[in-house]
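Below is a typical protein record.
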Amino acid sequence: MDETHLDRAHAAMEAGGESERLRFYETLVAAELFLLLDGEAEGDQVAPQAFEVDGQAFVLAFDTEERLAGFAGREAHYVALSGRAAVEMLAEAKLGLGLNLEAGPSEMLLPPEAMVWLVETLGDAPKEVEAKPQEIYAPVGLPESLVTALDARLAAAEGLAEAAYLVGVSYESGAKGHLLGFVDAHPGADGALARAVSEVLQFSGMEAAMLDVGFFQAYDQICARMALVGLRFDLPKAELKATPGAAPGMNPDLPPKLR
């Protein structure tokens, strides 16, 4: 059985401390999950299979289709959705999550309280502001753990942008900080990328204000400066069949509804 990102994050959590625990949850909300259903989905209405443990209800989800099929042992109905969308749906319904049960080393039960905590931790979507960079320079002072977490998250953002640069920045207003500048983001991907960075910061225990996110075209003058002094992240190339988040359940702002 192939090891998955969730398996590795779970193993690190078991062997580590609080930072690894938060990293696991960040990996969970970023993952694609497959929820086992009682019947075929009807539009955005789904009825997941549920079971009880000590009076609490859980639904079954797996991080690969193969694991779901191996558990079900038959042709099964399921829905694919982002971890974030699953968490929001389950928190609202006061349901827990049975993850990879009998299907992998990351199997675990997450109670309804964990779903509520995750939603509260995720908080609101990043705020959009207008600010003009005045000076770009090499990034300094950011924790290595944050850079590592960004690298891992962007490595999973297939086809959403050509590249990203982490730089130090000062603005015309006099404010200074750090900027993660995405180059040639796919149309419609801005929100997904900004949210991904926000989640990395939240689960790293960092303040969102310590890192701004910007979107640029390769011909913009600022890109040449970022390429010269910044830390580059290459995003994997992939053909997007649709606007990111457009598939049922994959838009965290429009999670499936229980029926």
Q: What stands out?
A: Residues 240-248 have pLDDT under 50 and may be disordered.
